[in-house]
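RETRY 2/3 - previous attempt timed out on the joint model. Re-submitting the same 1197-residue input unchanged.
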Amino acid sequence: MTSLPKTTAKKMGLVIDLDICVGCQACATSCKEWNTGGYSAPLSDHDPYGADPSGAWLNRVHSYEVDNAHFKGTVHFPRSCLHCDNAACVTVCPTGASYKREEDGIVLVNPDTCIGCKLCSWACPYGAREYDHDDGVMKKCTLCVDRIYNDTLAPEDRQPACVRACPTGARAFGDLNDPTSAVSQSVKDRDGFNLLDHFGYEPVNKYLPPRKGTQHAPQITEGCAPAPLDPSAAGGSPMEKLFAWADKALSGR
Amino acid sequence: MTVSLHESTGEIRQTTCYMCACRCGINVHLKDGKVRYIDGNRDHPVNKGVLCGKGSAGIMQHYSPARLRAPMKRVGPRGSGQFEEITWDEALSLATDWLGEVRGRDPKRLAFFTGRDQSQSLTGWWAQQYGTPNFAAHGGFCSVNMAAAGLYTMGGAFWEFGDPDWEHTKYFMLFGVAEDHASNPIKIGIGKLKARGAKVVSVNPVRTGYNAVADDWVGIRPGTDGLFVGALLHELFRTQNVDLSYLARYTNAPWLVIDAPGADDDGLFARDDQGRALIWDAAKDGFTHAMDKDAQPALVGDRTAPDGRRLRPVFTLLAERFLSDDYTPEAVEDKTGVPAAQIRKIAAELAHVAFKEEITIDQPWTDWTGRKHDKMIGRPVSMHAMRGISAHSNGFQTCRMLHVLQIVLGSIDCPGGFRYKPPYPKELPPALRPHGAPDHVAPNTPLAGPHLGFPMGPEHLLLDGDAPARIDKGFSWDAPMSAHGMMHMVINNAAQKDPYGIDVLFMYMANMAWNSSMNVPGTLDALTKTDENGDYVIPKIIYSDAYYSETVPFADLILPDTTYLERWDCISLLDRPISDADAAADAIRWPVVDPDRDVRGFQEVLLDLGARLNLPGFVAEDGSPAYPGGYADYITNHQRKPGLGPLAGFRGKDGTEVGIGAPNPDQLQRYIENGAFFEHKLPPEQAYFKHANADYLAWAHGMGFRGDADPVIFQLYIEPLQKFRLAGQGKGPRPAPAGHQDRLATHFDPLPFWYEPFEAQMVDTTTFPLHAITQRPMHMYHSWGSQNAWLRQITAANRLYIHRSVGDAAGVADDDWVWISSHLGRVKCQVRLMDGVNPHTVWTWNAIGKRKGAWGLSNDAPESNQGFLLNHLISELLPEGGGGYRYSNSDPITGQAAWFDLRVNITRADGAGETEPRFEPLGHASQPPSPSKLAYGADFKRGQ
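RETRY 2/3 succeeded.
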C-alpha cells in the first residue's frame, strides 16, 4: 500500500465551468493527442476502425439531461482525474506506482512499476483511471506534467493541453491551495463545488455550476410587452400611433 | 520508461486547419518526421489560440487508412469498387481527352461541381475558361438562403460576412445553429458573453450544444422561425421600438413604391430621370432622390406622383405587413409552439437592450455624406443564424426577415450589434450577374464572366427559351436567384436528361453518393442508370477526393487529393476570407508534411488540366503551362486584375504593399513566416458603420473589394423580387411561362413574409405529423469524422432523438428500434428519448451513418449497422403540383435545398437487428487494410 503526503505545497488542479462548456470535445481530443505522445505514450486504441473501437482516454465529456431542484437542462460534463488530496487510488496501490507528488499534488502513475492490477481503478470513485490494454499499465490525467514545467514550450503554453485548447474558456488551471489564484477566486465567486463531496476524497479539481440567470440581462417578466419608446404618442390603431410617432420623431431631428 | 517532462515537441510549422470549414490557424509540431501534436495559433484572427475537438484530432485524419493512394481507373461496374491504379500521366491524359472532346463539341455537356472546397475563385475561373455554364460549389445545398438574403438586403450575412460584436453585445440571439462553420469563433464568443454576463437566447428545436448553455431556450417548431421573427417585429412596431433615424439614414425605408395594381411597374420604386429612387423630403415638402445628402426623408405618408399615381414609402408597407393580424404573438403561438408571453418578453428585452442600454464609443467617424460624428452609438443586440433557418423552402424569406429585424433595431454594424468583416459589405445591389445563357456558350470558348451572380430581374435569368440553360436549373424560373447554384440537383437532372444530358461529370470533395445527396437510393440509381445500349446515362465521372468515401466507387477516374497538412491552399479575399471585423485577413495552407503516397493537391491537378486543355490564362503565349510551379506559382503570380491576386498580403516587389501590388516572389515565404496568414488591421474610425463609413468604403474600394465607394443602403424592400413577381403576373419585359406564374407571384414578395414550407403543404401532415431534422455534432464534420479513430470513439452510431411524449405515444423506450417514414421511404433506426426537443420534432446527428466498404471501416462497424441517414427519406423533388411538374425540394427563390422541411411519422419496429435500408458493401480492394490496433505516439517514447 502506498502513502499519501500529509500536505502538498501546491494543489495544482482544474476548475471546470459547467455554465460555459458546450460539449465540443476539444479537451478530450487535445488531451488524447498530447498524451498519446507524452508522459503516458502511447494511449493505445483497439479495433480503431472496427465494430467496437475503444482506447485509453484521460479525459472524456458526457452530455446528458438533468431535471432536478437545482437545474433543468442539458449538461456537458468533462471528466478526468480530480487529483484528490485523499486519493484512494494511491493508497490501494500495491507497488507504489501510483503516487501523489508532494510539490504540486499531482497524482501520477509510474509506468515502470505499475503491474496493471487495476486496484486503483476499482478504488477511484470517479472512474478517472484508464487501463491501457496494449501497454498493460494504468494511465490517467497527469495535468500534463510534461507541459506545465516544460521549458521547451513557450511560458504561456505551460498549461494542460485541455486548458490550452478549450475554445469557450470553460477550463482553468492553477494552484487551488493559493487563495489569491484566479482559480481559487472563481471557485469562491461562483460557488465552485467538489464532485461527490460526501465521499470524502477531497478532490482538488472543482466544478462551477450553471449560473442562475445573467448579471446584466434586462429584468423583464414573461408576458410583458416592450415599453413604447414614446408613451405620449397619439391614440388610434397601432398603425396610426406608429405613423404619428414616426412623423413627430423624424421632424424633430 | 516515460518521456522526459522537458521533452521538446520538435519543429513547429504553422498552417491552416481543414478539419472543418472554420479555417483556424494551427501549429503542427513535427518530431522525427511525424506529427507529434497540433494546437491553435495564438496570433491567428480566427481561433486566437484555441482549437476545437475536430482540430485537436487532426493527427488521425492525416494518417487515416481511408486515404487514397494513387490515381485509379474504374475496371468493374460502378459501385463495385474495382479499380486499377494508373500513373498521373495516364490519369491526366485520360481526363484531358474526355474534357477536351466535350469542350470542342458542346462545353455545357461538362458539369463541374465542387463540394466543401475553399478555392472557388480558382475552380470557378477554370470552369469559366473552359466555357461550361455548369459550375457551382455546394452553397445551394448548404446555406445560400442566408447568404443571398443578406447580400440582397445588406451586402453581407453571417459567418464569413460578419460576426456579432462579441466584445460589446449585451443580448445575443442564436437561431438554428447546433454547430457551425464558425466553430471556434462562436465558442470563443459565447465564452466572452458568459464571462460578461450578457444574455444568450437560443431559438432551436433542440437543446444541445450552444443551445444547452443559453439563458433562455426557445424550442421552436422547424420552419416557423419566420412567424416567430415576424411576431417580434409586430411587437417592436406596435410599441414604436424601431430606430427611425437609422432607418431614414441607412435604409430604403423612405423610398417611394408605385402603388398601381395591374400596371407593369406596380411595386417598383418611383425614380427620377437619372434612375434614382424618389423619397419625400419633409423639410422641403417635396420629392427628391434617395441619395440627396441634405434631405430629411419622410418615412410615412402616401404621396401622389406627378402622373397622379399613389406612391407609398417602404416603411409604411413594412409596418403594415408586420402590424397585420397574421403576426400577432397570439396568431403565431400555436404554429411556432412559442407561447405569446415568451414572444412578448423577448421583444421587450430586445427593445430594452437596444434602446435603453445603448452604448457609446468615443470614436469620431465620417459618414458617406461627409457628415462628421463625434461618437459611435450602438444598440447592443446581436444575432447569428445559419442552416436551421436556411434549409427550408421558406428559408430565403425567413432569412430576409431576420436581417430586417436587426436593421429595424438599428443594430447592423454598430457597437454591440452585428459587424461586417472586410471585404463586406459588398455593393448593393450586388454587382455580379450570372453567366451561362446559350448565347454565352460556344465550343472552345470561355464564358464572358463568372457563372454565379445576382439577377436583378428576369432579364438576367439563364434560359434556353423558357427552359433552364444550366443542368441544375439554377437561374431558371424554377429558382431565379440561385446565387450558389443547385449542386443537389445535378446528378438526378443529368440522369433524367432534364433539361439535357451531359457527357462528363467532374466533382471535387462532395460525398454525393451518400450524405450530401437527398434520396440516396435514387441518386445511386442515377449514377448507375444505363441507356438502351447498356451505357451509363452519365457516361463519364471524374472525382477528386482525399479519402475512400461512398462516392469514390461510382467514379470512372479518381484523382487522389492530399490531406490538409500536405497541400497548398489559398483562403483568399477574392473568395471566402478569414477576416474579422477589425481586420482584413487571408491565409494559406502549405505542405508541412510531404505526402507518402502518389497523390496531388486538387488545385495542382486543375492547373495542369487547364494547361493540357490550352485554356486561356492557363497557358503562356508559347503554349507552355502558365503556372509551371503549380498552385504555389498560381497563388503568387496569378492576377485577376493588374495588381490584384489571390493573396492581399506582402505584395509588391519588396513585400510591403497590401491589397493591390505587383506579385512578390517571396510572398508565400512571408506568409509562412507570419503563421500562414496575413492581416491588415482597420483603424478605429473604420470599426463600425462600414456600410456608410466614408473612410472604410474608400479603403475597401482601393483594395479592390468593391467597384466604388458608394454607401450600402439596406434594402428592406427588394425591387428585383418585385420584378420577378411582376413576371409571375405575366407582366414586364420577360413574363414567366404560365406554369411558373403562381409560384413567382406568391413567393417573390419584395417584403419578407412567412409561408408554410412546401413539403407540409403537399403531403398529408396527419399521416406525417412530425418534423425531422439533423444537427452536426461538434466533434464531427459531415462525413469526414468517421474515419478518424479518435472521433469515432466518441460517436460511431446515431440514434433518433425523440421527445418523451412521442416515445410514450409510440410505445418505445431508449434503444428500441422504430421505422421512421416519409412520403419517399422509410428507415429503421433506434431511438433515444429526451426532454429538450420540440415535441413535434425528431432529430439525429448528421452523416454518422456510413455505407459498408467506405472510409476504411470494417463491415461490422456501428456506422453502417446502427448508424443511419435521414437523407434516404428526403426527396430531391417535391410531389407533383398543379400541371404535373415536379419542382426540386428547394426554396423557390434561391434553390436552397430544403433539408429541414422533412415530415415523418414513427412506428415501433419489431425486434432488434440492424438499420435499413441496407446497401451492398462497396468493394475496396484498392485500399490497404485498416489496422486492428493503434499505438500512435509509441515512437516518440522509444526515441528517448
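Chain B touches chain A through 123 residues (CB under 8 Å). Closing ticket.
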